[in-house]
Amino acid sequence: MTVHKVGYLIGSLAKESINRKLAKALVQLAPQSLKMAEIPFRDLPLYSYDYDADFPPPAKAFKKALAEVDAVLFVTPEYNRSIPGGLKNAIDWASRPYGTNSFTRKPSAVIGTSPGAIGTAVAQQSLRSVLSFCNSPQMNAPEAYIQFKPGLITEDGEVSDKTTEEFLRTYMEQFATFITRVYTAIPKETV
Question: N- or C-end of the chain: fewer Cβ atoms within 10 A?
């Protein structure tokens, strides 16, 4: 069995974020073929091309962490019908300087939760647009717009609703399959 290291980015910087709870659940439900590791970005300054010649230490560490993973999972809330500013800033850092885009040919998937009925559908579409520009192969199905209700996911990442738990388990299994397909078509040596 091939094991793929997956870095996950949690779009919300809030410590009590419901998307952090969702990320914990996804880590627990991931198949053994996925080794999950959070890639934090809280300490990144606002991106400016003035940094391109010499990235500050948090940006170097962030780019290094992305280089060490085979795929990226984005777990994000929706802010003002788009992605949170901190997440967009992290993507900007990862894609710079020109010619060193950390997402090029790196498989990705997008998921999120919110209290609203449409989950994070609009934010996910916004993020998919950015990832397309970053040349990241994206898992387009299954889509996952999770409506969060109190008690759905515990602080420890346990999912209380069995239907949601099974859906999230299947989502992670499909992501594992997608990563394998991408690297079958585009071997890592060429990435």
Answer: N
Q: Tens digits of per-residue pLDDT, 152-172?
A: 999 999 999 999 999 999 999
Give residue 185's pLDDT band: very low, low, confident or very high (50, 70, 90): very high
Taking residue 113's Cβ as centre, other Cβ atoms within 10 Å add up to: 27
* b/e per residue 151-183 (b: at least 16 CB within 10 A): ebbeeebebeeeebbebbbebbebbbebbbebb
Reference 26, options 41, 15, 38, 14; nearest CA is 38
What tokens appear for 124 in the block?
């996910």
pLDDT at position 114: 95
Pair of tokens at residue 126: 């916004």
Task: Give CA–CA dist 34/27, Å, rounded.
Answer: 9
Q: Please give the average per-residue pLDDT across 163-183, as a whole number.
A: 98
Distance separating alpha carbons of residues 124 and 117, to the nearest angstrom: 14
Model-level pTM? Answer: 0.96
* Residue carrying the six token digits 């419901």: 18
DSSP 73-102: EEE---BTTB--HHHHHHHHHHT-STT--T
